[in-house]
Amino acid sequence: MVDMGGLDNLIANTAYLQARKTSDADSKELQRRRRSLMLPGPQSCEQLRQALPADFHSLCEQQPIGRRLFRDFLATVPAYQEAMGFLEEVQSWELAEEGPAKGSMLQGLVATCAAPPAPEQPHPFLSPALVTKCKAAATEEERASLVELAKAEAMAFLQDQPFREFLASPLYDKFLQWKVFEMQPVSEKYFEEFRVLGKGGFGEVCAVQVKNTGKMYACKKLDKKRLKKKNGEKMALLEKEILEKVSSPFIVSLAYAFESKSHLCLVMSLMNGGDLKFHIYSVGERGLDMSRVVFYSAQMTCGVLHLHSLGIVYRDMKPENVLLDDLGNCRLSDLGLAVQIQDGKPITQRVSGSPLAPRVGHRVGEDGERAVLFPGRTEPWT
């Protein structure tokens, strides 16, 4: 197996050395690349401001950049920050393992709801009636139910005045700048292509590097002629659409999508840990410890549940399609056979003829911070 971490370091070092050259041509090229990374001015965002729906769920929860900037805005107002902090505590309680510790967290949440932060200063995001009920809660079932109600009231509070103020703040202007930046066209000239990682029936996966940033990715290139010959265009387009909707740390994420004259290209981050099949059969003693089985199963389940919450059926679960990152966390990959469920319509699509053989995409993935720090851009395929 090729050491992709070593390849990543080699490419990054080469880019660094190239950047240190002092010739006029290199200096001008470096300046051009730096300019290409600058956010567009606020004046270029007015058209998007008018066209973008003011939807709280889309702007402040689904989109990582919007979620990050909205939290930065909440941190500027103590009352808003208090509501956000409460929701984070609720999330920690929801994700905690069953046991005494989770019970203590639940009691702490109810106590927080029942006790105001200061005398004669109730929580701004909770109703007086709910506070009264929290004071009288006696059983664990009552406490859990009240915490869910408190969570709903806190969310409703943030969706009201805080959200309206966010839309009028400079941080929302920054969000619009990021979205306009994402809309800039991307082509094959944006990347430097390196070695092929694998091949399949409709194309290949190769390592690529973004010229302007030095970031390494895996590019899934689907040959247009092969797609047309084998009637795979619909499946390829559906995979792109599904990847654009997915936002989970347990599923590979799409960074860029574009088309050249001969290929449809999906650009995703490299996963340096290999696939689960490799770890089962080729690392140490054959098989996995039960602790790792439970750990991977939980992460795969979270990924599948996220897809189901979007009305998407995966249909291609196998060790070759489960990728590991540098820290040993796993993600589901290769959504070529996934389908979007239509209300009232059965699935009639056959499950054979995937755009890439299962073993080809085993290094495709995405790190969790990419979408927050440097957003991807996708181009429509025609």
From TrEMBL:
InterPro entries tied to this protein: GPCR_kinase (IPR000239), Kinase-like_dom_sf (IPR011009), Prot_kinase_dom (IPR000719), Protein_kinase_ATP_BS (IPR017441), RGS (IPR016137), RGS_sf (IPR036305), RGS_subdomain_2 (IPR044926), Ser/Thr_kinase_AS (IPR008271)
GO molecular function: ATP binding; rhodopsin kinase activity
Subcellular location: Membrane
Record: active site: 316
Boundaries of every RGS domain copy: 62-176
Domain of life of the organism encoding this protein: Eukaryota
Catalysed reaction, written as an equation: L-threonyl-[rhodopsin] + ATP = O-phospho-L-threonyl-[rhodopsin] + ADP + H(+); L-seryl-[rhodopsin] + ATP = O-phospho-L-seryl-[rhodopsin] + ADP + H(+)
Keyword Transferase: yes
UniProt EC number: 2.7.11.-
Similarity comment: Belongs to the protein kinase superfamily. AGC Ser/Thr protein kinase family. GPRK subfamily.
Designated name of the protein: G protein-coupled receptor kinase
Lineage, opening ranks: Eukaryota, Metazoa, Chordata, Craniata, Vertebrata
